[in-house]
Write a structure and sequence with these properties.
Layout (H helix, E strand, L loop, with lengths): L9 H26 L9 H12 L1 H31 L9 H4 L2 H4 L1 H23 L19 H8 L3 H28 L8 H27 L5
Length: 229
């Protein structure tokens, strides 16, 4: 019998996971690029400029909400399907050779997904709902040298807390493994793979899985250690 997630059949779930995964990849590229602006080390002026653009552009804000909701559903659906798979086979075979069939991270997507979900909740709580004035605001941080809303100062404040830095780094570590497995899988699920291009897809997936989470993890670490100001 087909296993079910939030969207019914395994086939529907497979396409949903692939599509939301590809949308997430596109969003991560933009988000990581803007986060990297902190390394201009200009007091956050460049970063705040682009963060303001992200927060005021109607198209980006709409995509942002859809993608955040999609990511949450993506993670929750993955956890539910993993749980259902385990319930369908409650007793492990005595001589099951898991390593021969799959890599450890492909078997640990539920745990990695939970870590990413925790990271997302912390991120939304500390930054997104405040910059979008849903709950709270950035008034206490004043403006930067260019007179812009100072999200950079908020980041610098948040990342004085080592617990939050560790949560971010663990979330990025989980994101790395998730992308390493999911990038290529998304193309396969949508039928976009071809033996002529599979090598290139695998290379791009590995590069993406390394570069993007590293940029995200470097931000809180650099701020905590005082490398950027």
């Amino acid at each position: 019998m087909a296993r079910q997630g939030l969207f019914g059949s395994a086939l529907v779930k497979k396409y949903w996971m692939a599509l939301t995964g590809l949308f997430l990849i596109a969003f991560l590229v933009v988000h990581a690029a803007i986060n990297a602006m902190i390394f201009f080390n200009d007091g956050g002026i460049t970063f705040n400029k682009w963060a303001h653009f992200m927060g005021t552009n109607l198209i980006i804000r709409t995509m942002e909400i859809v993608l955040f909701l999609g990511l949450i559903v993506h993670v929750v659906d993955g956890i539910l399907v993993t749980r259902q798979n385990r319930m369908a086979r409650p007793v492990n075979y005595a001589f099951a050779k898991h390593n021969a069939n799959s890599r450890w991270y492909s078997r640990s997507m539920a745990v990695l997904g939970i870590l990413i979900l925790l990271f997302l909740i912390v991120h939304l709580d500390n930054f997104w709902i405040r910059t979008r004035h849903i709950i709270g605001n950035l008034d206490k941080y004043g403006v930067d040298a260019a007179g812009q809303e100072n999200l950079f100062a908020r980041m610098a404040d948040v990342f004085t807390n080592p617990v939050l830095v560790v949560i971010y780094v663990l979330g990025c570590f989980s994101l790395f493994w998730h992308l390493l497995h999911g990038f290529k899988s998304a193309f396969q699920s949508l039928g976009l793979n071809h033996r002529k291009y599979n090598g290139l897809i695998s290379f791009c997936g590995a590069a993406f899985a390394i570069i993007v989470p590293t940029l995200f993890a470097a931000m809180p670490v650099a701020m905590y250690l005082g490398w950027v100001q």
